[in-house]
């Protein structure tokens, strides 16, 4: 069992084992690792599918997290804000995030078709190639996670002891380690 304090987890510790560059497959894998670390710092331990969580901070809108599905090595999470608009509630950005527990990676698995902000809408329509689309979506997730940390969002109970990350072989159904 390995135990990490929150301050020790940083995406700057990722050492790529190949030459990477923007738009490359190797770079995308490093971005997935970075997103995992940032998401893990935000989310902490997650329970079974169907759980919903709320993060409130005076510096930002309410942030909603739901555990969409869980398996031994994969969780699917939805992270979003909700905005009232024209008599209905719009989720934006509405990201579906697939978390690979064994590989310690997180990727954008889906993104809502409707976007309130024109820049997000432009990003969603800008790329045709799969690699470019994945880069764009995961860079957006990375930047948003950075913003959420600065806005002091958290789904982690900071009053308890640091969360321990269990080796992948021992990761249970309800762990996001």
Give an overview of the whole structure.
The structure is a single chain. The protein is an alpha+beta fold and 177 residues long. The protein has one domain. Helix content is 28%, strand content 25%. It is built from 3 helices and 9 strands; from the N terminus they run βαβββββββααβ. The strands form 3 sheets. Strands 2-3-4-7-8 form a 5-stranded antiparallel beta sheet. Strands 1-9 form a two-stranded antiparallel sheet. Strand 3 and strand 4 (74-80) form a beta hairpin. Helix 1 runs parallel beside helix 3 (130-150). The radius of gyration is 16 Å and the shape is globular. The termini are close together. Residues 1-5 and 160-177 have low confidence and may be disordered.
Task: Tag the structure with descriptive keywords.
single chain, 177 residues, alpha+beta, 5-stranded antiparallel beta sheet, 3 helices, disordered N terminus
- What spatial form do the alpha-carbon principal axes imply? globular
Tell me the number of structural domains: 1
Annotation, overall tally of beta strands: 9
| Biggest pleated sheet | 5 strands, antiparallel
Strands across the major sheet, in which order?
2-3-4-7-8
**Whole-number radius of gyration?**
16 Å
Low-confidence stretches: 1-5, 160-177
- Please trace the helix and strand order, writing H or E for each element: EHEEEEEEEHHE
How widely separated are the two ends?
A: 11 Å
Helical coverage, percent range:
25-40%
Global mean pLDDT = 76
What is the count of helical runs? 3
Structural class, by secondary structure, is alpha+beta
Task: Report the sheet-strand fraction.
Answer: 15-25%
């Amino acid at each position: 069992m390995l135990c990490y304090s929150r301050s020790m987890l940083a995406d700057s510790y990722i050492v790529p084992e190949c030459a990477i560059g923007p738009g490359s497959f190797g770079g995308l894998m490093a971005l997935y690792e970075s997103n995992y670390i940032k998401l893990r710092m935000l989310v902490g331990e997650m329970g079974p599918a169907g759980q919903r969580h709320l993060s409130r901070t005076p510096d930002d809108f309410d942030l909603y997290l739901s555990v969409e599905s869980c398996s031994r090595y994969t969780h699917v999470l939805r992270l979003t804000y909700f905005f009232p608009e024209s008599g209905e509630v719009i989720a934006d950005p509405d990201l579906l995030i697939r978390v690979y527990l064994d590989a310690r990676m997180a990727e954008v698995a889906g993104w809502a078709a409707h976007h309130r902000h024109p820049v997000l809408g432009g990003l969603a329509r800008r790329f045709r190639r799969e690699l470019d689309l994945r880069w764009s979506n995961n860079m957006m997730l990375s930047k948003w996670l950075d913003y959420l940390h600065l806005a002091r969002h958290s789904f982690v109970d900071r009053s308890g002891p640091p969360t321990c990350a269990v080796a992948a072989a021992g990761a249970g159904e309800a762990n996001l380690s």
